[in-house]
Write the structure tokens for this entry.
Amino acid sequence: MRMPRLLFLFVLAPIWGCGRNQTAVKVPPPPGLPPQQTTAATPPRVIEPSTETISANLIPTILSNPQKPLFTQLGLASWYGAPYHNRRASNGEVYDMNQMTAAHRTLPLNTVARVTNVKTGNSAIVRITDRGPFIGERMLDLSVAAAKAVDVWQPGTAWIKLDVLESPLPVDTGGKWAVQIGAFDTHETVVQMKQTLIERYHPERVLEFTGPTGEWVRVRVDNDDRALAEQISRSMTTPEGGVFLVRLD
């Protein structure tokens, strides 16, 4: 007799944590750079969108309605470059760390947003092309170019305000949702976890994949139910890596 799917998802945590040695995830934070000396304060700057960073058909909308964000979020931003540079991003493009892009776990891909450094006031327009960050409580991962524009590159992390200006899909409704777990330090650990899940609970959608920081497992929820995915992500724990709610579209 098969276990109810909801019950299966809630009992994953204690099973994954048993029967094997716990290992620490070796994911370094973005590197900090030596502080630069400045001789005088400069006013906040705004990096406006251009055809090189934002789709041309979105520019009139952004410039004509700059003060009415569709969605606002305050959180910690970091940045990412190598080894992600020239790898395929979540929206299908090749990630270029020198373009004005960013990674966010739950905003629709190709969302256009204004990122403002809370401390310095500097801001820039970015496009969400990737998923992440998958470290702790960080909210946004900026490309190197975007991180330099909003003063995140030098310290490595900074508090920012994110204002969604344009989105190809609804921000608060719909979406394809999953719970992502990792990163694991060995492929054997991922295979063991996936095999245990298949044998005991017969899940239909458990995927494994390799990323620049290690091995990952992704569990899709039935009917792309966001509320259920959020509930699962809050209830699950694992000694290896973290558990993150992710929007796939």
About this structure: Residues 1-27, 31-42, 48-65 have pLDDT under 50 and may be disordered.
